[in-house]
Amino acid sequence: MDTESLVETLKTAGLSPYQADAYVALLDLGTAPATDVADASDVPAPRIYDVLRSLEDRGYIETFEQASLRARAHSPSTVLEDLTERADRLERAAQEVEKRWEQPELEAGDASIVTRFQTVISRAKSFIASASHQVLLSTTIENFEQLRPALQDAMDRGVSVRVSVHTSDEAVSLDADRFAGLCTEVHHRPLPAPFVALADRRRACFAHHPDSYDRYGVLVNDRTHTYVFYWYFLTCLWEPWERVYQARDDGYPIEYFDVRHLVRDLRDVDWEDDPVRLRVEGYDTNTGEECHLEGTITDVRVPFDAEAATGFELAGQVTVDLDVDGEHVSVGGWGAIIEDVEGTRLTVVK
Could you say which of 41, 76, 107, 287 would form a disulfide bridge with 25 (CB–CB 3.0 to 4.6 Å)? Predict the structure, then answer.
């Protein structure tokens, strides 16, 4: 670094122009009379004494009398400490600027449009980190790896994690071991797809596939808008595609993230003659408070012939009735209003 650049940098670090100029001159001179420092710098001779004393007050130099006022630079430890502290503050400021630019704060009910995919990934990480019961994710393998630590932490907290991995080649084979400890269940969609991340039925991230003409992302902190992304995930990115990994073995307990999946599977068991116990995690629709309960299934109510229904013909109102210690409790799916409980995690524990 040349002298001019060093002087400019010291000015940026908080020294006045005269202080920076005099200090750099003194570094080159070693020990010198005040008048020599003035001659070697751009500091006017009448000002040099005040400038040197101000540098001494900062701990950068020391002055002493020897026929005339002389000065010498201290060990640079104080200067280095000041520069390091200033550099740290600048780095933190740069990080905060980037954070505020990339990650606009989302208040409840907000939706934001962003232009950088990395912003979507960063927000997905934070949504997954704050999830308490459910994460649904549509992603490439590459982006899955970026989210690996967040997904592992979520699983360790007992969060249900369902992932739809999309690839551009149908021949791609996914190693099930890759997902152990990171996911509850994985489906494989051998077609390009958007990136989608849903957390706790309230927060959503969406970004077009990188090859798409439209390149933008959507961040949502709102149950109603997230519900739209949920149905897109369910019908286009999850339901039609092959399951390639499941954390549980065959048998009980069996966990469901949608009451419709539960009702569809109940057609295959004789639940009326062979009682089925269901553990429910969800929200009380009257109070909005979280609730946990367990009971025996007593009825399944759908507005059509449930025996004949396949796939998502179950898209209408679906209710499962339980006997919970002699009390009737009705359980619905996402957005349940007329039922007693909106079920977020349904586990057959028979």
Answer: 41
